[in-house]
Design goal:
CATH superfamily of the largest domain: P-loop containing nucleotide triphosphate hydrolases
Shape: elongated
Strand content: 5-15%
Number of strands: 9
CATH architecture of the largest domain: 3-Layer(aba) Sandwich
Number of helices: 18
CATH class of the largest domain: Alpha Beta
Length: 447
């Protein structure tokens, strides 16, 4: 008998009863408990049903005491004529004081967490025993589920609209308290922020252009600004440039030392002091760089999950990424592979709940047109990229095609798709000597 009982899922009957008893003795502790525990954290069905009644009454600001709770149980159809009254009375008698409710809550949460870990381990073991998954798929499934547990939410499951509305209210309060002009993270370019409402959580933002237009430069501008001013960690996955090259570009953008002088090492005394100040500023940020050229979306997802206080992920660039199935999926056509990657990136943005800025190449189609401004149809290899992205931005410089234009360093950020607002074009100034973009009304002297 003892052996059978020992195989029960982890739980503490005493802690669950003490939590409920505390709520019935002193309703002042109800907000604290409701915030910390969900009904599914209770293992025993009877305790879970009582707690569901209390949560429901709390949501509707009803008075909560033993009599009203019993009445609510009758309404919910979970009242037992013979047992419910006695059980409620017992809960109040066995609870010594409501002062220790936080300790009781901690025990209930810990046991609930252990049950979820155990369930997840069992699910993954069953997948492996069925023999229907590869090692990589089993690892991805395990990581996703354990990450969801760590984040305090279910990997999958239905959620009532009331709890979603609470999340919306929390977000609105957060925005109101911040007083920020845009709801998302700032890109550092005021006009771009205004057009796209900043970089918002769970958004997949695509920045596309022909080679040489400054995609990497703009991505690094955004990375640098977010790393310096958001107070969050930012991650840059570079599948094209080395860490040292990226660090050099970041130093050039931060110090305003001519990039050519940095590359050749012909630096003046003043340049060295600027570089030292820029390096000190960069050291204070939480910027992380990975230059492994063979990364898949699942690799990136796994790495990002281990970063504390993650705020932004930048990927340079989409067409160089490896499919989730690995480089061996040569049987797939490239369009299908890119479709898989873009879909996985959108799922990753939702999973991590941070914006992902992904760079993308454009096809040569625009170069055969009289107006060479890029369009959505120019996205290389897959219309799925356009479909999965929340925001699509193109970079365009007339001076790239026509050196005799009036202002060769005038650039445009063309917002071709925007789930949060209107599309349109934002003028920017390109500073080639510092490989930096600035807003049109701001110049180097203002820094």
């Amino acid at each position: 008998m003892d052996e059978l009982l020992s195989r029960q899922a982890p739980h503490s009957v005493e802690a669950e009863q003490a939590v409920l008893g505390s709520l019935l003795i002193d309703e002042r502790c109800i907000p604290q408990v409701v915030e910390a525990l969900k009904p599914e954290d209770f293992y025993l069905r009877q305790n879970r049903e009582i707690y569901e009644c209390i949560c429901s009454m709390f949501n509707y600001s009803e008075t909560i005491d033993p009599v009203t709770v019993l009445d609510k149980m009758k309404q919910n159809g979970v009242y037992d004529e013979n047992a419910s009254y006695e059980y409620i009375k017992q809960l109040m008698l066995i609870t010594p004081t409501a002062a220790n409710v936080s300790e009781y809550v901690s025990i209930v949460r810990d046991k609930s967490l252990l049950r979820r870990v155990s369930d997840t381990a069992g699910t993954v073991t069953a997948m492996i025993q069925e023999g229907t998954v590869t090692a990589q798929e089993a690892l991805d499934a395990a990581e996703q589920r354990f990450y969801a547990i760590r984040q305090g939410r279910s990997a999958q499951g239905l959620e009532h609209i009331s709890s979603v509305i609470y999340s919306v209210y929390d977000r609105l309060n957060e925005l109101a308290a911040s007083g920020s002009a845009v709801p998302g993270l700032s890109t550092g370019l005021v006009d771009v922020d205004a057009a796209i409402s900043g970089l918002n959580r769970s958004d997949l933002v695509l920045l596309a252009a022909r080679p040489g237009m400054g995609k990497t430069s703009m991505a690094l501008n955004i990375l640098l600004h977010t790393g310096k001013f958001s107070g969050k960690s930012v991650v840059y996955f570079s599948l094209e440039m080395s860490r040292e090259q990226l660090a050099m570009r970041l130093i050039a953008g931060e110090s305003f030392v001519d990039n050519k002088r940095l590359v050749t090492g012909r630096l003046s005394e003043n340049d060295w002091s600027k570089i030292a100040a820029a390096s000190a500023a960069l050291n204070q940020t939480q910027i992380y760089i990975d230059d492994n050229p063979m990364l898949s979306v699942s690799d990136m997802n796994a790495k990002c999950r281990r970063v504390d206080n993650l705020g932004l992920v930048v990927i340079d660039y989409l067409q160089l990424m490896t499919s989730a199935g690995g480089p061996g999926r040569s049987s797939d056509n490239r369009q299908q592979v890119v479709s898989d990657i873009s879909r996985s990136l959108k799922i990753m943005a939702k999973d991590l709940n941070v914006p992902i800025l992904c760079l993308s190449q454009l096809s040569r189609a625009n170069e055969s047109r009289a107006d060479k401004r890029p369009m959505l149809s120019d996205l290389r290899e897959s219309g799925a990229i356009e479909q999965d992205a929340d925001i699509v931005m193109f970079l365009y410089r007339e001076g790239y095609y026509d050196a005799d234009t009036d202002d060769p360093n005038l650039a445009e950020c063309i917002i071709a798709k925007n789930r949060h607002g209107e599309t349109g074009s934002v003028p920017l100034q390109w500073l080639p000597e510092y490989t930096t973009f600035t807003s049109i009304d701001r110049r180097h002297e203002e820094y």
